[in-house]
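Suppose a colleague, Dr. K., hands you the sequence of a protein chain of 181 amino acids and asks what its three-dimensional shape might be. Before reaching for any lab equipment, you can write down a predicted structure in token form. Begin with the sequence itself:
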Amino acid sequence: EFSVSAMRAASPNWNFGYSSQNPLTVEGDTSNFLSRQSKTGHNLFARIPPDGFGDREQIWSGTNSRLQCWRLGSWLIDQDIDGNSATDDFRLDVLGQTYAAFPALPHQATSEQLVDFWVGRIFGRSLEAAQRDELVDFMAQGNSPTLSLILDGSSSTAIAVRSRVRSLVGLMFMTPEFFLK
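The predicted structure, expressed as tokens, is then:
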């Protein structure tokens, strides 16, 4: 559920599946993802019927499972597909969705706008004011939360803002609210 929720919220930007049927060849990213997924303790199709995976919170919120989900989320957020940071082609298309939400060129938004957009996208509801304020403070990095942040360009400031947006989404994936639906 963590993986599907993260990918649904932030739109995967990689090939999942098989690159060839004869011989059957799994895409490298798929193999890497499934390996990371298995470490969470909730392998796909691994629970034997008739009971399936449990529906109690304790089963899903153990420390090892939580830690491995955080690692999986970090891999999805931070892994640059081609290894070239100038292309912004990460496993999850956080930046593409952010650009689409704020289409005016140059792409810009305030810390508050960015947080509100991603809170709505990830949680589908508002957060408590204190939680929202912490996320806004993280995004603002000591600046005014109403200051317009420019996402475009190759300046060190724009690169830092883009990185912080991806980190913001990753941080939201680590919250208890994201784990418990």
